[in-house]
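Recap slide: Histidine--tRNA ligase, sequence and predicted structure.
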Amino acid sequence: MRYQKPKGTMDILPGESEKWQYVESVAQDTFNKYRFSEIRTPIFESYEVFERSSGDTSDIVSKEMYDFKDKGDRHIALRPEGTAGVVRAYVENKLYGPEHIKPYKVWYKGPMFRYERPQSGRQRQFHQIGVEAFGSDSPELDAEIITVGLEFLNRLGIKNLKVALNSLGDPESRAAYHKALVDYFTPFKDQLSDDSKVRLEKNPLRILDSKDAEDKKIVANAPSILDYLNDASKERFEYLQSLLDDLDVNYEIDPTMVRGLDYYNHTIFEFMVTDPAFDNKEITVLAGGRYNGLVEELGGPETPGIGFGLGVERLMLLLKDEDIPSQNDLDVYLVTIGDKAERASVKILSNLRKAGFVADKDYLQRKIKAQFKTANNLNAKYTVTIGDTELENDTANVKNMATGEQVSVSLENLAEELKKIEG
Ligand code: ATP
Ligand code: MG
């Protein structure tokens, strides 16, 4: 083959794209109900936006950035995740200003890019859907963010969801924990992976997230953040749990969970699901948390924030075909016999579509039998057949393709007649 798609990318073809549209429409509908508006930011930004936001010890920034110098010698990166661009837009457009209602709630969808080794479930261009809310530090908002994520997935028919929950506490708690981790890991320094040696210097919390087998053994006995939360952080975490109890949310505290961003604090969470599509292994479908320092980090005023992101490709693997309503079913397939009908069909189709019907015809001058076969293959509800006689007598033959029933109606009033038949 002459041309192939770039490594790690996918074509989303008709047949599959309907599924994507459905997921996106459920996202829009669910998020709007909670007053999240859609935000669309560029798919590329200054490299520094991501470096600042994810932190330079993150896997994303240290290994996976899809970055390049443009013709003006600017250091550009394709976005690896959604939050950084949204925060940049929040600061640049002064969305923290008094004319904007707080909390400022947005959602996004779109392609993300990471230079990873392509493998099952891991691409270089993939898609995320996410939400962010700025300007409130309230634990009730944390509960809402978790709820809106659950409602979204529930509406898509995803069952057996479990929320893994943790708290990273406030800056004071994190500083205490930071020190405890350094004290714990330092004696193991020589055994740690090279990445984790660097993390120990720069951001020891990240060692907890290491995928290295040796690191994992050492991590197993590391101190727990929950022992280092100060009273205010502990109280806040317990209060959030009581809110989730009230909402009957199925959650589990996971004190070993840390998240990629450097600026997470207090609430962090992941939604876990066990499904045959992933060999019944538990996988993360959605992940998020509170990032109260991030807006400041990107040059804005001190502003609390919380959000989540989810990988759409992974979500698609969990969707069951029967949970996806079929879309754009064909109402009418116009069958024409002869040149005159062929000419008339242009106007007839146009009128049907104006009246709201999903309608199509054969453009290949095929025989009537072949046209009916196509109508069948397209699952058309009705065929409307016209030929010379029909044109002369102002009639059209309407056939209900499911029952085989046929009626002759006025061609002039075809759209209205069809509506009558529809009932
Ligand atoms: P992992 O530990 O699997 O690398 P991550 O911590 O990099 O995950 P996040 O940055 O939290 O993942 O991204 C959120 C979601 O985006 C993931 O749960 C996953 O569904 C999806 N995702 C991340 N990277 C890729 C990729 N390269 N291809 C497809 N989906 C991805
Ligand atoms: Mg990753």
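The longest strand covers residues 104-113.
The two ends are 51 Å apart (CA to CA).
(End of recap.)
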